[in-house]
Design goal:
Phosphoribosyl-aminoimidazole Synthetase, Chain A, domain 2; 10 helices; globular; binds adenosine-5'-diphosphate; 2 domains; 31% helix; seven-stranded mixed β-sheet; binds magnesium ion; 314 residues; 60s Ribosomal Protein L30, Chain: A; alpha+beta
Length: 314
């Protein structure tokens, strides 16, 4: 059976995973990062891979941007746990057409993304293949031992996001369609940053958190599934930047759809008790409910959300 017929990436991971045997595994498969007990500390570990012509195309990504994005997606998963990144292991496969200069530029991007957080690249692997692949494993720690998983959302919690969404998907479509202009929007796709700048502050109050890598719909579904709750999202409250709205118009799509089904925005999606909501940055987009379904409220009209974000196999 092919993976599409089987139900896609998430179904496959579910089938492959088994419960950890070691009692030091605090969070195993199924969150933005794994967490293990390590002495008196908690070690946070995540891994993300990017493949040529699947995650990026060398026709509209500079080598440096490939490095920036590969690192940002990993940093974002550490941010989503409320943790701080420490060390990276970088493995790359290079094709016959990859030059020394190109690899140097990829590393310039990797180091640019890590420099703000004092992350060191401490190892990796280099091999040859028909396409360029970059895989990063990132290790992190927490200050006070607190981590935020996807599993703590409670009915009545508000749902917030740290910033405007849909920009990355808009940028991708602009690049694919070779549309002129919209340089800022295109960079949202090729040079994303993560929200380690405010994740610490949020982790103080959040009951659940995930980064938005597969689209708001998909990442919210992950939180709801893990927490055993549902949600109501106010479609009009989903923040989208003005230039992304203009791009959506040009691309013939709705701004909120870019946010819901696009992905790779690397903003944080989190829940917290309503009385703490004003203490943390972000935009409120909905509420957690006990009924394990996700509804989209569009000017008072409520429909169940049945379409979800990106899956490599669907
Ligand atoms: P994210 O989008 O936050 O990077 P993913 O959707 O890639 O997370 O992965 C979801 C969960 O599945 C994570 O816990 C990840 O570590 C785990 N996972 C993904 N692929 C595999 C695999 N091949 N084997 C084991 N675990 C995996
Ligand atoms: Mg993630």
């Amino acid at each position: 059976m092919n993976i599409k017929e089987f139900g896609g990436e998430f179904k496959l991971i579910e089938k492959l995973s088994r419960t950890a045997r070691n009692k030091n595994v605090i969070v195993g498969i199924g969150d933005d990062a794994a967490v293990v007990k390590f002495g008196n500390q908690k070690l946070i570990i995540t891994s993300d891979m990017m493949c040529e012509d699947e995650h990026f195309s060398t026709t509209y990504y500079s080598p440096k941007q490939i490095g920036i994005k590969a690192m940002a997606s990993n940093l974002s998963d550490i941010a989503a746990m409320g943790a701080r990144p420490l060390y990276a292991i970088v493995s790359i496969s290079l094709s016959d057409k990859t030059t020394v200069e190109v690899v140097g530029e990829i590393y310039r991007g990797l180091y640019q993304a890590t420099d703000a957080y004092n992350v060191d690249i401490i190892g990796g692997d280099t091999t040859h293949a028909s396409i360029l692949v970059i895989n990063i494993t990132l290790f992190g720690e927490t200050d006070n031992g607190k981590i935020i998983t996807r599993a703590g959302a409670r009915p009545g919690d508000v749902i917030k996001v740290t910033g405007p969404l849909g920009g990355s998907e808009a940028g991708l479509r602009l690049l694919k369609d070779k549309v002129r202009g919209f340089e800022r929007v295109k960079k949202l796709h090729t040079e994303p940053s993560c929200r380690l700048d405010i994740s610490d502050q949020i982790a103080h109050y959040a009951t659940a958190m995930a980064d938005i890598s597969d689209g708001l719909a998909s990442d919210l579904r992950n939180i709801c599934k893990s927490s055993g709750v549902g949600a109501i999202i106010n479609r009009e409250a989903i923040p989208v930047a003005d230039d992304v709205k203009r791009a959506a118009l040009l691309l013939g799509t709705l701004p909120a759809d870019l946010a819901l089904y696009g992905g790779e925005d690397y903003e944080l999606l989190y829940t917290l008790p309503e009385n703490f909501s004003d203490l943390v940055p972000g935009v409120q987009i909905g509420k957690i409910i006990s009924n394990e379904k996700i509804y989209l409220d569009n000017k008072g009209e409520r429909t169940e959300l049945t379409q979800f974000g990106f899956d490599h196999f669907l």
